[in-house]
Design a protein that fits this description.
The chain is α/β, with parallel strands linked by helices and 252 residues long. It has a single domain, classed as Alpha-Beta Barrel (TIM Barrel), CATH 3.20.20.70. Helices cover 48% and strands 16% of the residues. It has 11 helices and 8 strands. Strands 1-2-3-4-5-6-7-8 form an 8-stranded parallel β-barrel, surrounded by 7 helices. Helix 9 links the parallel strand 7 and strand 8. Helix 7 runs antiparallel to helix 8. Bound molecules: pyridoxine-5'-phosphate (PXP).
């Protein structure tokens, strides 16, 4: 691969789902995820990520509508690979559609999408999204079989699931953390060699972002829960600015 990727800029996508989680805890209109998106843009976010879950537990259809109308940076629309979500995506034509697995009982997206077993269905599922001009991304484990399948079905982007790496770090199991990191590194290189754009995310914090941001093949990080939590203590703009600084430091 060319070494231009070594200096490629690293984008930060700020996931605003959990602003909506807090709003929905009371019902009503605040805190407003659209206001959070505006502040994130001003703080240097390169994109906004929002996950419209089937049960609408955080982001609502009206939030997506509002984001599409007001954002000045690209929207990364996360969704399950269902007919309902496909219709919504085709109506809004966001910059990117990221396909994620979804189980109602899970607290957050627990694993990567199973692509290999559903190759045929997913190939047909993403074709109209690509035709509508959306960049199709697949949220995926650091698993060669799944990445190869994502490539075969015509995805342009994979987003590597960093949850296991972050969990191992939080539990102080540094041997497991380093194994996860090695797998992420190897699969970022592999995906890049296939021509896939590589993103990463889930569970990233100030402590865990550095080694992921340092991977030259990774072009975008999507970070939400930690930033929204940190915003309680230092405000959203400074919380994002610090993440941006740590990403740039690791990249350099
Ligand atoms: N990327 C994807 C595909 C996700 O599903 C999520 C969680 O919604 C994230 C990134 C962000 O994860 P976190 O909120 O833990 O930073």
């Amino acid at each position: 691969m060319s070494n231009t990727s070594e200096t490629a800029p690293l984008r930060l996508g700020v996931n605003i789902d959990h602003v909506a989680t807090v709003r929905n805890a009371r019902g009503g209109a605040y805190p407003d995820p659209l206001r959070a998106a505006k502040i994130a843009e001003e703080a240097g976010a390169d994109g906004i990520t929002a996950h419209l879950r089937e049960d609408r537990r955080h982001i609502s259809d009206a939030d997506i509508e509002g984001l599409v109308q007001t954002l000045t940076v690209p929207l990364n629309f996360e969704m399950a690979a269902t007919d309902e979500m496909q219709k919504i995506a085709l109506r809004h034509r966001p910059h990117a559609v990221c396909l994620v697995p979804e189980k109602r009982e899970e607290r957050t997206t627990e694993g990567g999408l199973e692509v290999a077993r559903e190759e045929n269905r997913l190939a047909h599922f993403i074709a109209p999204l690509r035709d509508a001009g959306c960049r199709v991304s697949i949220f995926i484990a650091a698993d060669r079989r799944q990445i190869d399948a994502a490539h075969r079905i015509g995805a342009q982007v994979i987003e590597l699931h960093t949850g296991a790496y972050c969990d191992a770090h939080a539990e102080g199991d540094f041997a497991a953390r380093d194994r996860e990191l090695a797998a992420l590194r190897e699969m970022a290189t592999h995906a890049h060699s296939l021509g896939l754009e590589v993103h990463a995310g889930h569970g990233l914090t100030y402590e865990t972002v550095g080694p992921i941001a340092a991977m030259p093949e990774v072009r975008e990080l999507n970070i939400g829960h930690f930033l929204i939590g940190e915003a309680i203590f230092r405000g959203l703009q400074p919380a994002i600015a610090e993440m941006r600084r740590l990403m740039d430091e690791a990249r350099a």
